[in-house]
């Protein structure tokens, strides 16, 4: 399977202006990488994209670990309001991506389940994501890749510290 073109202009490094710093250039590079990666994934995976794709993958991950997923889990995981979550889940039901089943232990809770359509999406997404990652990492040795992953995890941890303070 060949990957679709991103439709994005190639990112070219540029000399920072007097106002810019190494940090803002790095933040911009991460932003561009994220944007291109998301567009590539969206084009390669077809009609299911964005938040719907992330919700499906979250439920699939929970299923793999023997966990039920509830609307409240989606609300918490994606930091969205209850009404937004309800609208998204309802639309996903209408698209045939999810079903809600009443949970016997608490009549107010509805477990979310993937349909055959969304299960097929998970299988396709997994294959496409691996192809994209292989292409993205081409020419990068394991040591460099490992260091980059460790560095990004440290950056994420540092940002979480800021988030805790706010």
The CATH class assignment of the domain at 48-125 is Mainly Alpha
Low-pLDDT stretches are: none
Radius of gyration: 19 Å
Mean pLDDT, to the nearest integer, reads: 85
Keywords: DNA-binding, Transcription, Transcription regulation
Protein name: HTH marR-type domain-containing protein
Domain HTH marR-type: 23-161
Pfam families: MarR_2
List the helices and strands and how they pair.
Elements: H1 22-45, H2 50-64, E1 69-70, H3 71-77, H4 82-94, E2 98-102, E3 110-114, H5 116-136, H6 142-165
Antiparallel strand pairs: 1-3, 2-3
Helix pairs in contact: 1-5, 2-5, 3-4
Q: Would you mind describing this structure in some detail?
A:
This protein is mostly helical and 166 residues long. Helix content is 63%, strand content 7%. A three-stranded antiparallel β-sheet has the order 1-3-2. A hairpin with a 7-residue loop joins β2 and β3 (110-114). It starts with 21 loop residues before the first helix and ends with a helix.
């Amino acid at each position: 399977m060949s990957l679709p073109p991103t439709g994005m202009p190639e990112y070219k490094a540029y000399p920072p202006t007097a106002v810019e710093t190494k940090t803002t250039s790095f933040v911009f590079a991460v932003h561009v990488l994220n944007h291109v990666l998301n567009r590539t994934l969206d084009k390669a995976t077809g009609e299911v994209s964005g938040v719907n794709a992330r919700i499906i993958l979250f439920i699939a991950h929970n299923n793999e670990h023997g966990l039920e997923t509830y609307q409240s889990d989606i609300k918490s995981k994606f930091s969205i309001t209850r009404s937004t979550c309800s609208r998204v889940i309802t639309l996903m039901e209408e698209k045939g991506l999810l079903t809600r089943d009443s949970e016997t232990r608490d009549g107010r809770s509805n477990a979310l389940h993937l349909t055959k359509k969304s299960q097929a999406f998970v299988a396709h997404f997994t294959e496409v994501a691996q192809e994209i990652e292989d292409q993205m990492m081409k020419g990068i040795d394991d040591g460099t890749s490992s260091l980059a992953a460790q560095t990004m995890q440290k950056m994420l941890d540092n940002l979480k510290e800021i988030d805790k303070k706010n």
